[in-house]
Specification:
The structure is a homotetramer. By secondary structure, chain A is α/β, with parallel strands linked by helices. Helix content of chain A is about 40%, strand content about 15%. The first copy, chain A, contains 14 helices and eleven strands. In chain A, helix 1 crosses helix 11 and helix 6 runs parallel beside helix 7. The interface between C and D is large, with 53 and 52 residues.
């Protein structure tokens, strides 16, 4: 009954097996190995386009490195006021951009409000030396409130951004969960909707520690700079084959979508248990996260039964399921709620 | 016959097995898991002292993070002119310190010359605002030329540094190899000799990707700052248990020293083959690296036989063995040399 | 009729005369000259306490350097969402702190709302590694909307900050104007109210280009670091005597307060002209800035008459007077309004 | 008898008069004033080409800002090991570039050795991700040892740099002195010799505090970025007219060259007095600096007579003359030497 975070889950056996299988014989260092190349090839197929990648071991590194090639030190990045890059990465975007500024926007369920975005872009003036202009828009899907953007929602925000000469970054730490719940294809949700750089997460959905920074279209020209910045940040581990192996195993035979589907279903069941016990959901359950105001006594009963979860600043609580959540855990959870 | 680098080797089976074994059930994220705690406990025993650690996935990250808590943005770090932090890390120390300066010293076999160190420290003046004073001394053991410092050599350099109020960092990417060849204990070579912060490498000696930043003595007070800086740099991966598991397995039953011994022996044999074929060693072979001027035709013969190795800027060649080097490889190498 | 900004005004003759008088004979460089020492002595008297100073040539430099000794690269600074440091300095605080984060608070007339400040401080947790904790509070007096904080208003905000272990910075680009309108003494408005570091502006009020970063109390221990950071930023001009001479002349015989009084009176008269013509003031006129919604046609009439002023994002207009504003200008302005 | 530094001299009356004259009526802020425009126009004439400028108040700011548009955070700058940017600016280039690296070259009299430059450029590899490639070459004229490069010497170094795709920066803190002694024109010594960005000093030669960053040719495209970086660093003072006025007065009717000629002549006379007293010059006297090994007792006699000068790390002493040095000072100096 650990619903603290999907990062509390172990790694999926198939991914560890792939790492074990990769530990054979010498291989070129720093990403020039066959496993990393295979991961890129598979991602090209999954996303139905040519693309470039860099593999890193944490989502913070993926986001910050990705943003660092889109925003200069004297520029800014638009994001939601609850965005992970703003609230949970200890200033990593500022560190990697060399002092770039995050400019915050409101919006329900951590989806950036379209009108607010438009207003902010309208007075963006890269030629006015005194103010910091924005150079990129960063979206998260799943959002930090567990809601999904559908492809057209990404698209309308990305279109506004592009019109204002901004690049578009997508924090896809839980992209698989959003794809499963919206039924969108990876391509529809990303480059076809206008995304230039994607942080493609695998860690929260079964990997040991592996995220791909994916460059689409014109952003691919920034690959060398991305590698330079990764090297300089210590995110060019010599035995990168073990990141490549993780990513390939994650994608093989749709494992990633299966795992996300499992996590989402657990969340749906858990949300149903909560609402039937009188809790009030505060956000849509579009993935593997449930936010709810609990009825009196419920939090205490759950804790007493051994459930793990976080209180949220607004007085609600957050419950995160994962690929490893067992049906029995949800049942025990529901039972504890009812008791 | 791959002697390009010890990073070309795979990971040791025992280390991968430990990772597989760690993939069981939920665990706290970000280093609060039992595996990471066990790794720290074992390191305390191995180094015979209380210490604090942070685990990262690359040596560059270990060095740069370690230095970032010793040197402010307006300070400098003394190191050898061939130090890895100067020549092979794409400015990572400058990035992590926020613009700190590396001040270079000469010395044979990439050991910092004692007299040059003394001279430089003599006119270090932290109160002179116009010049950049040095705040730390960084040594590498093995050095970048494959030579080892013995404990007293570390000690005499560290003592000078300490007298001048500098902290001492040791880049121990190949510390195991230096310990095996000198017969020194981990404690003798590090904190007893005056080292404050150690980059303790495992990746080149069998890990998948794992290095411990170890804080000794007074430097332990900087643990929180180290964690903050690690977080901000994306070096706080959520499932840190898999780094902890690697480190524990690496240390278990002296595996790390066994692997280093094996690599060193391969280097010794390879060096003997080279000298008996007329090559001239340019540096002591105190670990798993051999630098040699080859007799005419030798490089070509070796390449034709399929051997991998790097030409070095001074006209010599570098050969690196690893725990995974097989006796047959050395034999084939010797045969190719003789032919 | 130039009401664009007080920086459009020339420098006051007495200040230029003092510079000319300082151009005599050799003097030590970098701030060790008698003029700079005299400026510090006079500031001690004016502020009724021992203090340390550093003189710079721009307000942005004063703010950014001042904040850089209060907030580490991995920390944050609380300020109003309309603060000059956030909206008009092109990321200077982020540059000087090495990537620190500005955390924005609301509040009427650009005064930080007390309740909002309290709420934000309540959940500030320096020990939570994932989020950026705030290390300093930055207030502006005059505020960016031309309003003044009275000493007790500074005090109640500073007290909350101090309780939460934050340092307090005051952007006093127009401090003289605030002192004149509130009747407060320099001491009451600053260190007695809890201010640690003050950007004490002279440029907008008659200097050629001179601002003092003033360190009070415990902050004085950071003087050396401040000098180091100033040097490194190119804000340690060799002939600093000419900054010292400006500051001394600015303070001599209360010139600074006379000039501010003059500017404030011009603003009062201008505001009266505006309201009698049907304009609606949007902020208190506590200094030399007037913000107003103009009646239809007024802006055009003023422009046609040659008046200079800026439209403001909220549909109002801003008018800034200075020590150099002539009564005839205000009369002509009023006449143009009425016509 | 102050030979400590040319920055100990006051400002020239004509320059202060120009500042006084500029203090008349309102003027646009931030460099859009007529004085700054006039300064640019005059510089175009003096350098016989179209160029762009940015005015700052210190040489460190000029150098660091100039380099920051030539070298990315992950790149390097080649300079002499005794270059001012390396030894006297407290890491300003590292700060402004965001962690760029200075790569040091040897050479007599602080002129970069041509062969050493060639060797270093030969193995510069911008595509090798692990090492820091150099992006710019920085020369100083006068050099830090008081020697001048003649135009062809600049040219041969710049040509090598350009071939290797480096930009060329010239630290001209004492350019006037070098022009006077070599007889070269400003154009010959700079853009015609391959210089892209020039730090054109006036402070050491009579200004209050004024240096122009001058962009030639293709570098002019970086003007906006230069302004952004200047703004962000607090080097966009609002009343820039007073910098513009300084620069115009400095250039008017050849004042700058007259002042440099005067300083150089004083140095020549002073050097003659030294050698006739048995001192041994350690560097050519191509400008207003004299370096000499003094005969026994001479330093003490000079100090006793009230002369100011600095001991130099190599056991010699440095004497700097300026436009304000009086013949009587040299005579008294010579007398003290002889006594």
């Amino acid at each position: 009954m650990n619903f603290m975070s999907d990062t509390a889950a172990p790694a999926h056996p198939a991914i560890l097996e792939a790492m074990v299988a990769a530990a054979t014989g010498p291989a070129p260092s720093y990403g020039n190995d066959p496993w990393t190349k295979a991961a890129r090839d598979t991602l090209c197929k999954v996303f139905e386009t040519d693309l470039d990648i860099w593999l890193v071991s944490s989502g913070t590194a993926a986001n910050a490195l990705g943003l660092s090639i889109l925003c200069p030190s004297h520029g800014g990045v638009l994001c939601h006021q609850d965005a992970h890059i703003q609230t949970d990465e200890r200033g990593a975007p500022e560190f990697y951009t060399g002092g770039g500024k995050l400019i915050l926007l409101p919006g329900k369920h951590a989806r950036i409000d379209l009108a607010a975005l438009k207003t902010r872009l309208d007075f963006n003036d890269p030629d006015f030396v005194h103010e910091t202009p924005v150079h990129a828009l960063s979206l998260s899907n799943l959002t930090e409130n567990g809601a999904a953007y559908r492809p057209f929602e990404i698209q309308e925000r990305a279109a506004l951004a592009r019109e204002a000469c901004l690049a578009v970054h997508l924090d896809g730490a839980r992209l698989a969960n959003a794809l499963v719940s919206t039924g969108a294809s990876p391509a529809e949700m990303t480059w076809r909707a206008g995304v230039d750089v994607l942080s493609f997460g695998a860690t929260k959905n079964g990997a040991v520690g592996c995220e791909a920074i994916i460059l689409f279209g014109a952003a691919r020209k920034r690959l060398q700079e991305l590698q330079i910045r990764a090297k300089r940040a210590g995110h060019m581990p010599p035995k990168m084959r073990f990141l490549g192996a993780q990513m390939s195993a994650y994608l093989k035979d749709g494992l990633w979508l299966d795992l996300a589907r499992r996590a989402n279903m657990s969340a749906t069941t858990l949300a149903a248990a909560l609402t039937s016990a009188g809790a009030k959901l505060t956000h849509p359950v579009d993935g593997n996260e449930v936010f709810a105001h609990l009825p009196p006594g419920a939090a205490e009963r759950l804790q007493a039964a051994g459930a793990g979860f976080y209180p949220w600043p607004d007085g609600s609580h957050r419950f995160v399921t994962s690929w490893a959540t067992e049906p029995e855990e949800i049942e025990a959870f529901a039972a504890a709620l009812e008791s």
